[in-house]
Records
---
Amino acid sequence: MGARSSCKIIDRAGFRPMRACACFLVLACLCAASPALAQTGPFGDVDHHIVRVDGLRFHYVTAGSGEPVVLLPGWPEMSWIAWRKVIPLLVKSGRQVYVLEPRGFGDSDKPQGGYDLDTAARDLHGFLAAAGLSRPGGVDIVAHDVGTWIGHAHAALYPADVKRLVLTESNVPGVTPPGPGGIPSEAVNLKSWQFAFNRLDDLPEILVRGHERDYLAFLFATKTTRSYAIEPAAFEEYVRVFSTPGVARAGFAWYRANFSADGLAQAKMRAAKRLPMPVLALGGSDGVGDALRAAVATVGDHVTGGAIGPACGHFLPSECPTELVDAIIAFWRTPS
């Protein structure tokens, strides 16, 4: 994929699709994205789009041609570039790739609320319709981390939208068994401390503001095995995104909303719904391993997967993109 980046606006509120000039003239071209998107050359040749769903603006990128697949990024990347290494591999395999930035992520709108997974599922359902991806038999969806929360919730509530579902490196609220009580080991604490921290009201924003770079550096250092996989350009973009007003707050809101009493009640109701579509559930060998497959198998009718490795940490799309795409393509080729 080359270094060219273009920008397209699709406003489903009633405006005609139009191609904007290169994103270097973002504001002049009415492209509703920050000027930094003009610097996405290092992350591939993609088209940028804005779509409106229920009054909110959602940013997404596309690349390639062929049968579509929708990718959902996770936290703390909060950006489409989490899939930067996977996009060209899927395009090469003959797929048209859509990467959606959910509410609060990247250059999508960052409202004060709506970070519960029932709302996120409705957002994704609306996005598929607005982007022209609703079709008989559904569309393939691939998700990571918080994207996996969204992917599962959407598949449970809107199963007709989903052809095949790939979930990676996460727990699933309401489905994954709670961890043991007591004080976790040092190794477990390094992998999971953010679940308690991010749920606190106000304190995460107070402590992280002005220290976004140090915060993200710690997260990537402790959750990767192949630390070199978060290259400097990607790290700088993650810092830019996380430092954008509203993004850190939204990132913490995903945890607060979905591990609150209301969020857990929603999760319990979703967990009672079977997943009828084929599901591939993957963890890193040094991440959640086989735990995601084992959890999802309790609510899915056709679940396969396991651990990818060796030496794959939490950030599978960055650390192990080839292994991940190979597993996904093999899954797609398996008769359902």
---
Amino acid sequence: MDNCIFCKILAKQLPSSRLYEDDHCTAFLDIRPVNPGHLLVIPNKHAASLAELDPDTGAQMFRVGQRMARALRGGSVRCEGVNFHMADGSAAGQEVFHVHLHVFPRFAGDAFRVTLGSTLKNSPTKAELDAIAEKLSANL
């Protein structure tokens, strides 16, 4: 993809601080980190969304993410926990339309926060959950 920043990084047209690369995916440090050590795992073949991502590549991305989480916990950066984050689509906050898994270290008192909306204050009933599950199951 000509205008994809991650494709340009993969093609070495743009610099990156790479940590890992295999036949399916590549991991490199994020240039706008939540905390030092924040990295991205991306597929080597362009996929703008999860719907376009090969399932085997997606599985490999999470295996690599686990390996990167182990590295973060290795003591080189401050890390008391690890977050994985992936946004799929504009409404979910995706800004670069090449699938990417954020893996970043967390520690007590860091500035990162996930803010949940007021709609989460009222838990749905079991019947409401069952109705949603039935509708979603039909799409599998």
